[in-house]
Amino acid sequence: MKISFDLVIFGGTGDLSRRKLLPALFAGVQAGHIAPNTRFFLTSRQARPLAADDDAAGWLAGVFRDNPPACDYSPACLARFAAMVRFVPLEPSGTGEDWAALAGTLDTDGERTLVHFLAVPPALFTDVCAGLGRHGLNGSRARLVLEKPLGHDLASARAINDDVARVFDEGQVFRIDHYLGKEAVQNLLALRFSNLLFEEVWNNHSIDHIQITIAEDHGVRGRGGFYEGTGALRDMVQNHLLQLLCLVAMEPPAQMDAAGIREEKLKVLKSLQPLDGTLIDTQVVRGQYGAGASGGEAVPAYAADLGLDGESPTETFVALKTHIENWRWAGVPFYLRTGKRLPARFAEIAIQFKCVPHAALPSWKCRVNPNRFIIRLQPEDHLALRMMIKDHASTDEGLREVELNLDVASRDDVPRLGPYLRLIMDAAKGDQRLFVHRAEVEHAWAWIDRIIAHWQSGGNALKPYAAGTWGPYEAHDLLKRDGRDWFADI
After folding, report:
1. Within this chain, do residues 237 and 365 fall inside the same structural domain, yes or no?
2. Is 217 annotated as a binding residue?
């Protein structure tokens, strides 16, 4: 079903808009998900981002050369999309004519939904919300999409949420985490809650442990100003990794609506084992990449990558072990890992089941691998169940591991929605199921703040690792002590 709405992207000519939002929107228009009378307003602090109003197609062509949409396009398609785009010079903290001009352009009295996407630094969230409120752009049909990061600790997150709440009701606020919009995450929920097979074994009786990894093979990629002083714990663990943990560990909601999902995710966050003091020293590893090789090329250490004089206290790698203290998950460790300059780029949830209690044949004793359920989020969506079967090439009762592929082949005429397109469309429809409630953000920050406070007090020194490796030795030892290993077999 095609939907029609107005979308204002604050920071519309910035990095996020060029890399993710505009290619996603173009693909949505091309696939017929977005009606051609939808309008996209791109705000910019520049007086005029283009030399002339009719140069939008040329500017977009340059954007798509660097960031190709997930579809083919012709000059005619590009021209049709460009006709939907408006460029708006606007200073977020200003109170002048630019805000009034934007308000005059938008249809605030009709039936069209108005979506405001804040692709700007969090420091500007308050100014933008205040401007929207002053000019009546926060009516009942308005939606506000907040891009991460939402603060740098619990206090700052609460301050932002309070400022937003002065202008928008919570039902109008959509805190985006694009990992939640990925197809594999949707399939995880579908498999769990529509198949009795999985629900019967989704507990500590059958599962040995769970690993969640988001690995990046690049460095800071021009984000040095943001990343320095933020680090991997705030940038990746507080939002992406904890959100994925919640979806894996949550109880079945009574209803698969926003309120039901939110309630169950909050229960998981409230049940997370609190880490402090000695537990942080033994269950959390932070590291920083040094000089090494990536993609066959030599790369500098993190500080040199940023052009810093001297050393930096910012972590580029975090691995941690935690537990969820409830009946379903008692005794099951959750291992989370993320880092930059690792050997490969991928995001994956790996659920390892327990070993069979008895090898019925002597030849099986060293050949039976535990079952493993794999949810791959990037670079491509992939779901698979690894199982043991008889090795037909063996002359005895040998076994081999096979992968039961749970992917659904995509039809050429029905392209998959990318995460940003899916989430923008959900925001336009007012569907909050795949978005993060303020209570989730604040509980996650409260858990993370204990670790940061311990680090700032001098605990948990940074551990070095060479670029192009799987992180510090201590991260491997985190699992080795439990008789386990990280899964890196991509």
Report:
1. yes
2. no
What is the total count of domains within the chain? Answer: 2
Residues 318 and 454 in one domain: yes
Count of Cβ atoms closer than 10 Å to residue 327 Cβ = 10
279: domain CATH number is 3.30.360.10
pLDDT at 489: 47
96 is in an annotated binding site: no
Contact (CB, 8 A) for 8 and 43: yes
Answer yes or no: is 45 a known binding residue.
yes
CA 422 – CA 433 distance, rounded (Å): 12
Positions in the chain whose pLDDT score sits under 50 = 51-52, 411-412, 489-490
Q: Which amino acid is at 367?
A: R
The confidence score (pLDDT) of residue 226 equals 76
Asked if residue 151 belongs to a known ligand binding site, the reply is no
pLDDT of residue 400: 77
pLDDT of residue 220: 80
Q: Tell me which residues are annotated as active site.
A: 240
Instruction: Confirm whether residue 108 is marked as ligand binding.
Output: no
Whether 97 and 190 map to the same domain: the answer is no
The reported pLDDT for the residue numbered 121 is 87
**Domain contains 164:** no
- Domain ranges, residue 279: 180-413+439-480
Task: Tell me if 294 is assigned to some domain.
Answer: yes
**In this structure, are 207 and 329 located in the same domain?**
yes
Q: Which two tokens stand for residue 117?
A: 């996407």
Residues 6+ apart with CB under 8 A from 381: 182, 183, 184, 187, 407, 416
The span from the CA of 269 to the CA of 437, in Å, is: 12
Query: What's the pLDDT tens digit per position in 8-57?
Result: 999 999 989 999 999 999 999 998 899 999 999 999 887 555 544 557 88
Same domain, residue pair 250 and 370: yes
